[in-house]
Every structure is written in C-alpha cells, then in structure tokens.
Amino acid sequence: MKYFLGISGYFHDSSIALLDSDGNLIDFKKEEYLSRVKGDKSFPRLALQEMIKNFNLCEDNIEQVTFYEKPFKAWLNILKYSIKNNSLKNELTRNYFKNIWKSSIVFSYDLSKYLKVSNKKILYCDHHLSHTLSGAFYNVNAPITSIVIDGFGDESTSSIHHIKSLKEINNVWSSPFPHSIGLFYSSITDYLGFSVNEGEYKVMGLAAYGQPKYYDAISKTIFFKDGKLIIDDKYYDYCRSIKRSYSEKLKELFDIKERESNQPLDIESPDFKEYADIASSAQKIVENILKEIFLYANKITGESRFIFSGGVAMNSVAINQLTKLDFIKEIIIPPSPGDSGAAIGAAYYGYLNKNGFKKNLKTENNNILTPGFIKNKTTDEDFFLTSYVKVANKENLIEMAAELIAENQVIATCYQNIETGPRALGHRSMICSAHSIAAVESLNQKIKKRSKFRPVAPVTLTENANKYFLLSDKIYQSYFHMGAVAEVLNSKTIEAVVHKDNTSRVQLCDESQILGKILMKLKKHNIDVLANTSFNISSDPMVYSLEDAYLAVERMNIKYLLTENGIYKKKDE
Amino acid sequence: MFLQPDKKGSLYNTLVEFGYAEYGSALEMLAAAKMAESPRLKVGYINHALDEYRHSKLIFEVLNNEVKRNKDTFKNEFKFIPQHVVSKGYVDKKNFLVEKLKLKNFVEFVYTNEFLAKDSFDTLIKRIGNADSLKILKQIASEEEGHADYSILTLNKIMAEEDRHWGFAKLFYNKKFPNSNLNVAFKKEKIKNKLRLFYFKNVLFLNKIFDPIINVLILVFGKIPLLLKTNSSLSKNLMNDKTNSII
C-alpha cells in the first residue's frame, strides 16, 4: 500500500490527513486531539507519530507529503505589506522577523525529525487551492466554482477558483491582505471580548439577539465594490499589532467600549443588548458581502454551483442567507472547511499530482468520520470500572440509550471514530431529548456551561425533518456532515433547540448512524429530535480517547457515558 | 512543571503563570495516564490531571477576583488562551515528560515538583494576604469581603490538594524506588525553577536589550524582502503550479 500525507499547521488547528493509493481518506487527525491543547498550531508531531505507528509509514510506502501552503510566500506577503505600510520598527514587522523560525518555513526541517522522506516527495500546495481541493475531494462534478474565504493564506484572503476539471482550476479572482472578511469578523470577536479563532461561533449566536444598528457605520469600513473587497485599515489593528485586532478608530463607531473578557455576558447582563447589536451588525455585513462575492463569482464564471470553504464557511447563518439567492443552485461545504480540513485538500493534491490529475475518486467511501481510530492497549475500557458500573453492553446499548433519553437523561458518547469536522455528529457528542426544556437546559448550561444565547443543535432522522424544519435543497449534504441553519416550521415541542431568530442548526441522520439508531428506538416514546452538542469542555478540544472521555465526564459531572462496548454509569449516582 | 512565585513582581502576572503551570501539569498527567497500562495507575494519573485542571481554572478565577477587587483593567494577557501553555513553555512541543523521562525520573519529577508546589502556594497565599491585608480588613464589612476571602480560601484549598498529591507521589516513589536518594533531584528541580523565574522576571528586560538590536538589523536588511518577488497565482491554472516551490 502506498500513502499520501497532507499536513496543515503553524497558524491554527494543525492537522494531518492520510489517503491510500486509491485516494480514500483512511486517517485524519488534528494535533489538538492528542496534545489536548485547543487550536494547537504546533507542527502536528503527535498526530504524525501515531500515524507512523499505526500504518508503518516510511520512505518506501509514502508517495507524497504535501504541505497545505507555500511557506515562504505566506510569510513574505504579510512582511512586505507590513514593511510598506508600517514603520520597519512596527511591532508586527518586528514580530515577523523575530518569529521566522516559528513559522511554516521550517516545515521540512520539522518533518524530518519524525519522518525521513526525500525532498522530491515533499510538495507545497497553494493555501486556497488546498481549501478548494478539500471541497472537491467530496464532490468532483466539474465545472463548478470554488469560493474560499478565510483570514489569510499565501497571498490572498479570499479567492474565486473556477474548476473546469481536476486538471484545470483557474484562480479568477482574489483579494489581497489586509482586505479580509475573516480578519474583520475576528476583530469584532476580539472587541466583544471573545478569543479570536474560537469565539466567532459566539458572535454568530449573539447576533440573533441584536439589531444591526451599526450596519451603516461599519459598512463604511469594509465593503465590496467593483469586484474588489475593500477594508479601511485605519479601523483594524490586525495589520499593525500583535496584541489586538481593532483600532481606537473602530471604538468610536460604537456606543459601548470593548468588553473585558472577564466580564460575564449573558442575556441578563446589563450591556448584553449593546454587544448583541454590534454582533448583529457585523453578521449582516458578512452576509451582504458574501452575497456580493457569490454574485460576482456567478458573473465571471457563469456557474451556479459552488464549493464554499475557508474559516468563514463555518458561518452557517450566513450560508442560510446565501441559499435564498435565486441564482445559486447548490453550495457544497466540506465537513471541515477550515485550515485543519485543508490538510485533506493538500493530501488530495499530492494524490492528483502523482496520478497526472486524471484519476477520479470514489468519493462515497470517504466517510465524514475519521476512519483511522485504531484500538491499542491504552483504549482498553477496564479502567472505567474503578468509578463506573456498566449498565448496558454492546448488544443492548442502543436500547438502553433510548430508555435513558426518554427519562430525560444526558448521555455523553465516545463511540468508534471521531468526526472529521468541527461538528460532533454523534460519535463525540452529548445528547438528550430536544423535547425536554429541562434536559436541554441541563445539558447546555449546567453540564456544558455555555451561555444561554448560544443555541443547541437538533438532530433528527431524515424522514422527520420536514415536520419541524424548512430545509434547503441547495445545501442538503451539509445537514448530514456538519449541520446547517434552517428555519423552524413547528417549534411547539422543540423550543429548547430553537434559536432566538426561529432557526436551528439542524443535523440529519439515517438509520445507519448511531444517533439514527437511537432515534429509531425513541419512536415509541414520541421523541423525534435529539439535542446534540460536542463532547468537550469550553477551552478544551473535543474528546478523542477513552482517557479524555473519562476525564471529561468527571469534570462535567455527567452521569452516563456511551462507548462502542456499552454504557457506563457513575458509581456514586 | 512548576514555578516559584515572584515575590516582588506583578501579582497578576504571577497568577497567570501559575494558572498555565497548573494547566501544563494537567496535560502532563493526562499524557502519563494514556501511557499507563495498569487501570489503577491510569485512573490515578487521570485523577491527578483532574485536580490540576481544576487548580488552573481556580487560579484564573482568583486572578479575575483580584482584578475586580482592585478595580483594575482586565488586560488581554490575563485571558486564558490554551495555546499559550505551549508558547510559554509549560508543555514541551517536542515531548511530554512521560515520553522523554525514564519511569524513575518521571516519578522523581512528580514527587519533587509536588513538594515545590506546596512551597510555592504557601508563598503566594502569604503574598495575597500581606499585600492586601489592609484592604481586606477595610472591605471586610463591604460587598467585597466575599471576594477577598475567596482568593485566600481558594488558594488554601488548592494547597491542600497539592499536599495530597505530594503525599501520594512520595508514597509511590518510596514504594517503587526504596533505596533512592532524592537530594540531587530536589536540587536539580530547584535550580530549574529558579532559572525559569529568572527568565520570566527578565524577559521584558531582555526585550529592551534585544529589540533595538533587532530594529537596527531590520533597518539594515528590512528592505530586502521588498525586492523579492513572489509568483502571483491570479489568472493562472493552479494545477500547473510548481509543486516543490515554497514561494
């Protein structure tokens, strides 16, 4: 067997993807799964070491190792901007010089510490092309247009690629640094006191509670005009500072000063409405600019089917707005649209390169779950029995899970492989009945300790979806592999999972999946919808191993844990 | 991994460093749990990790409490950002301790550091108590009294747990390596902690020395990057790009 490795890292969410010689994704690991450092951006040595061990990777069986960006290009472009526009002694300029040895320029040296491969086998793929290919990997029906929007990559912050075939992917439009929608949204995230690259989800949830009263003011600082994305950098410090993303000038636009991150923010907080108004305004800006970029892409490529990737493609609220545009027929979003998923695109690039860009994939085999979670001695579950009793075994775990959910219990799952993308789809989830307000409140606020303004996602069988939600055919696959926003048709019995704006982050499943199996058993209890959130503590990565699961169950005080071998209950309960 | 509290520097910065040090310890203990084969040992390490995670969280709560109590601004650097545990060096990017140390050295490390941790917390508690005692007394009747008590009570609670960790570590070490002499290990860890403290105390000072040098280097060589041209990919077929070029 020959292998193709794709690696992303050094900026955020370092990851590795492994394809076999038939182009099937056989493993995918984020470094954070193993290091337990959320958003770990270090060279993914733990992920690589585990893959080397599990697949006996070596020079002989590795065809290509592809890095997800062109390291020197990425470093140089920002540095050149900084030198031209800031003083040479500016903090950002100095930081770029000082930290060159921490940047991706040292990738091949870092790789050589763990895996010896000849330089001929190391490839570098354009950053946005890695994103595009991470989408094309799941759907190669060319011609199609790929839109990539993130913070920054190699030379641009946003790109339009016209995919005529896997041999011909033309870069037809791009926006240079600092004109970036991703960095704009991160600046607002920073202003609202949330962590950049982590708190963007919170801004999106918060937006539904506000009015876009700052829309006009902000839209003068970032806009799309005559095919150009323009940001007025006087308002944004990310192009000057390494400490904060917004400038003093941006503060002047708002009636409230920036939120200190230690101040609680919840629906009852005195300043909640003001901050929600800022979030709402920023969200509306992003939605409107995205509409314009998609319209522009349609104009210059003539395509009405799109692949959408990059960090901004995780803004599911904005995607819901895009589906309302008549000229759009389909939007395909890869399960992991951000930088970690770009490792899959990079591995695919290596695969295509080796095969003369000719070979098509049997994409139906490319599961949305990481296929390579291989059992070793440390995943033996015996240690659970020191604190837990086994209340169900492999044979009756589905039935027991359904019974517990019918009793309004919350169950955590650490079942088989982990999901590829950021959304937990049942294998690393915390679930309960969505029909019980008390159960969902317990899950969201007591166990997960999330703010009340953040919605919990519903999951339902395909056959029941239309009873509750108005789904869009244009993003149908997304409901299965990452969840997507949909308007709620009937919120009567599922208020607990309906957001303030009468939408939900809907996930669909079928009977072949663990949640589908549980939902089938729940039919007799008239439970059609589950509430589902990822199995992790805020500021921790998603649970990966059984040890992580044990630890998380203890830290969150969860009563039941479901694994592939059964259900465990805490002894003292 | 442990840190000796800075007796004179910013209390807030000291708390931040303590919080990250505890988080780093939690990650080390979890890594050890994953490598342990015996279920009892595995659970022992996980429980140790649980305590360290909680300590880290509590220390950041104490920090928040102290900032509020003193009506100071909560600066960005006080915010807990998980990745800083790596960039600050509380977890080694190259190895977890359990990967690089032999079992004896790892157990020795845990034992000696738990002992030092007790010492460190004691100093920290005294510091909060002494520096703010007058304020605490004045505020004791006010709304703030709960906050003031909270910081000291929380740190005392953490210290009691570190005491327990040390007890377990000592028991385990003596059982496993009955004839060992720990003096060398203690001295080694103390020197390492002192060096770490020295580094943290002087990092700003070192920046003051090195930044002007770097500025001069940038002024001399800084224009060179402007002369370098990168290949623009605009209007090109990206699949024809040079595959082994980093630029």
Q: What is the element string of chain B, with H for helices and E for strands?
A: HHHHHHHHH
Oligomeric state of the chains present here: heterodimer
* Average pLDDT, all residues of chain A: 92
What is the tally of helical segments of chain A? Answer: 19
Structural class of chain A: alpha/beta
The total beta strand count of chain A reads 22
The biggest beta sheet of chain B reads: none
Query: What is the radius of gyration of chain A?
Result: 23 Å
User: What kind of sheet is the major sheet of chain A?
Assistant: 10 strands, mixed
Proportion of β residues of chain B?
A: under 5%
Detail the poorly predicted runs of chain B: 133-148
Report on the structure:
The complex is a heterodimer of chains A (573) and B (247). With 573 residues, chain A is of the alpha/beta class. Chain A is built from 19 helices and 22 strands. Chain A starts with a strand and ends with a strand. In chain A, the strands form four sheets. In chain A, strands 13-22-21-14-15-20-16-19-18-17 form a ten-stranded mixed sheet, with helices on both faces. Chain A is globular, with a radius of gyration of 23 Å. The longest helix of chain A is centred in the middle third of the chain and has 30 residues, at 272-301. In chain A, α6 (127-136) packs across α13 (342-354), α7 (181-191) packs antiparallel against α11 and α8 (200-207) packs across α11 (272-301). With 247 residues, chain B is mainly α. Chain B is 71% helix and 0% strand. Chain B contains nine helices and no strands. The longest helix of chain B has 39 residues, at 183-221. Chain B is globular, with a radius of gyration of 23 Å. The two termini of chain B are 40 Å apart. In chain B, 33% of the residues are buried. Chains A and B meet through α3, α4, β5, β8 and α19 of A and α1, α2 and α8 of B.
